[in-house]
Design goal:
302 residues; mainly alpha; elongated
């Protein structure tokens, strides 16, 4: 995720980090080159009597394409924001669980509960990103428990279940009553809901036909546009075509990035940094030395 102050006008124009330009630059250049070829052919009168377009069809098509891309980008941004809301809620659930554990559980059980809850957050991050997070799991977790979780198809869910076992054991031994057990389980239940919501976002992309329609229409529009511009714009046709291509191709690419917000693209969510917030919250609740928050590297926070 890009984290930086808003730069000045010139630096904003030249900003590269976090921009979609590196991904679409070949397509922009190709559209501009095609427009240059169309302009050259038109200037040599090879298109006379063959192609005589006005800008009216392109105006209507451009409006329709703008609406289509706008709706698609709104849908993908809503997915991105929903994912951020869920992981922000996990911070609340983790801190609330630590506070409730300090009220109802002894020190040893509270520590084990929080370590397993923290392990759940790391394992969920690993599942969403398809990464091995064994090295990031709390050192106090038993190797047997970690191996048992990683051997399942849903390690995060198993770790959360084992966190619930701590509460169940305390209830069986009479350390807490049913009211305290329900209070602790409420926060574990909330974390399970966050996992389910994250899995829903990760495993349910936008309908492919919708994405394909926007993608194809943007390319058709940008490659037909030179025929409508060449009569009035002349040799500026490649420039105007490249600008339009940057806009439409950029919106198309940006929506692809926002559609899956859990990856490591520049505009994806900083799950590493959020998990570090969990580590800090748990360490401070347990009276342990807290690690430093993660800082952006080259304006990018992972």
């Amino acid at each position: 995720m890009i984290v930086r102050d808003r730069p000045g006008a010139l630096r904003l124009m030249l900003a590269w980090k976090g921009s979609v330009v590196p991904h679409i630059l070949p397509h922009i250049l190709l559209a501009g080159l095609f427009a240059a070829v169309v302009t050259w052919v038109s200037r040599h009168h090879y298109l006379d009597g063959i192609v005589e377009y006005t800008l009216l069809p392109f105006t209507l098509m451009g409006i329709a394409l703008s609406i289509l891309l706008s709706v698609r980008n709104t849908a993908t941004y809503n997915r991105w924001w929903e994912a951020r809301r869920q992981w922000g809620r996990m911070v609340y659930e983790m801190r609330s669980l630590a506070r409730a554990g300090g009220i109802h559980l002894d020190a040893a059980r509270r520590r084990e509960l929080m370590m397993r809850a923290l392990g759940h957050a790391h394992l969920l991050r690993g599942q969403l990103r398809g990464e091995d997070v064994r090295a990031d799991l709390p050192a106090s977790l038993s190797t047997v428990l970690i191996d048992q979780a990683l051997a399942t198809r849903n390690p995060a869910a198993l770790m959360l279940q084992r966190a619930g076992d701590v509460v169940a054991e305390a209830r069986r031994e009479g350390e807490i009553d049913s009211v305290a057990a329900a209070a602790l389980d409420q926060h574990l239940h909330g974390m399970a809901g966050i996992q389910a919501a994250s899995e829903r976002i990760a495993q349910t992309p936008l309908p492919f036909a919708y994405t394909l329609l926007a993608h194809r229409t943007a390319y058709v529009y940008c490659y037909l546009l030179p025929f409508g511009l060449v009569a009035g714009a002349g040799w500026f046709t490649p420039v105007f075509t490249a600008i339009v291509a940057y806009t439409f191709f950029g919106l198309d690419r940006l929506s692809e990035q926002l559609e899956f917000p859990f990856g490591r693209e520049a505009n994806d969510l900083p799950l590493d940094a959020i998990c570090r917030v969990h580590e800090i919250s748990v360490a401070e609740a347990l009276g342990d030395p807290a690690p430093e928050p993660l800082r952006p590297v080259a304006f990018e926070l992972q």
